[in-house]
Write a structure and sequence with these properties.
alpha/beta, 2 domains, D-Maltodextrin-Binding Protein, domain 2, 11 helices, single chain, 11 strands, globular, six-stranded mixed beta sheet
């Protein structure tokens, strides 16, 4: 009888132990998360991502640390994200252009199928800038110089920015040569150092230099003027049919448990409403927006097929 009782007690204890391990495994998150940012520290994407990560740490109950992995027009960080475990502890910024445009230009080790989509949390605005002491005070000045020289270099960190310069050059009958930069820090350094004459840049990364008077904004490449330089027209206002928009998105490696994905989506949706986050976004002159995960996923797949068709036609 004692032996039966002992076996029964041990069985009950074993059940409780196993149940305890299972319950512990079901608790997510129970440790810090890492967010990979695919552009350099201090740029617009980085500022927005850090603010959002800080806000999301509250509903998640765990800190969200930032790791910047740059290069390849934003593709290196996204490739690194794909190669991580799909356990919900590594997530990453997966911006629209490296997901949908660059794969048709370069060989990349991923497709949109390799990710789960958490949200899109911001839009990029773009503009054409030069150094403050540049002789070019307008787009027309720049175009005249490009015509006179036969070709002019411009810098950008990747697509879709070159689409704007290609469209501008085609409409004006001038040649622009695209100089690729791995990150905004290097591009800013070369503009300020006078090593490149102009740049088609994202608003968040460059607006502080326009504010401080170190750079001049010749024109906005979006559908709105920049608030910090209200006298600078849009390219559309100048008669060029150019307006770029792209998104900052947040993804996880494919195969993520659905409950974990829901936890992440809910946490970052809550974070998007955080007052401190919204204040940082506003002060950083970022274009605030919010798309739920399924909406961002749909946009990525639509653009992926759209650019596939575009680059197939270009290659003919």
């Amino acid at each position: 009888m004692k032996r039966v009782t002992r076996v029964f007690v041990l069985s009950v204890l074993l059940i409780f132990v196993l149940f305890g391990f299972a319950a512990a495994g079901e608790k997510y998150p129970d440790q810090a998360l890492t967010m990979i940012v695919n552009y350099s520290a201090g740029g617009g994407t980085d500022l927005a991502a850090r603010a959002l990560a800080e806000a999301a740490s509250k509903p998640l109950g765990q800190p969200v640390g930032i790791t910047n992995i740059t290069g390849g027009s934003g593709t290196v960080g996204i490739a690194e994200l794909k190669n991580n475990k799909n356990d919900g502890y590594t997530i990453g910024v997966a911006t629209l252009a490296p997901l949908t445009i660059v794969p048709w230009q370069l060989e990349v080790p991923y497709t949109p199928d390799d990710f789960e989509y958490i949200c899109a949390f911001g839009q990029y605005g773009y503009g054409l800038v030069v150094r403050a002491d540049s002789p070019y005070n307008s787009v027309e000045d720049l175009l005249k110089a490009a015509k006179a020289s036969g070709k002019m270099n411009y810098g950008a960190t990747g697509y879709p920015q070159p689409f704007a310069m290609e469209a501008l050059g085609k409409a004006a009958g001038v040649s622009f040569f695209y100089v690729t930069y791995a990150d905004t820090t290097a591009l800013i350094t070369d503009i300020l150092g006078g090593f490149i004459e102009c740049a088609l840049c994202d608003q968040a990364s460059f607006i502080s230099y326009v504010k401080s008077g170190q750079m001049k904004l010749l024109a906005s490449a979006t559908d709105k003027r920049w608030d910090v330089a209200p006298d600078a027209p849009t390219l559309q206002e100048l008669g060029y049919d150019v307006a770029l928009l792209s998104y900052m998105g947040l993804c996880a490696p494919a195969g993520l448990d659905e409950a974990v994905l829901k936890t992440l989506r809910d946490a970052f949706a809550t974070a998007s409403k955080d007052g401190a986050y919204r204040e940082i976004v506003e002060k950083s002159n970022l274009v605030y927006t919010w798309l739920p995960g399924e909406d961002y996923k749909r946009l990525v797949y639509e653009k992926y097929e759209e650019y596939k068709k575009l680059f197939s036609e270009i290659a003919k």
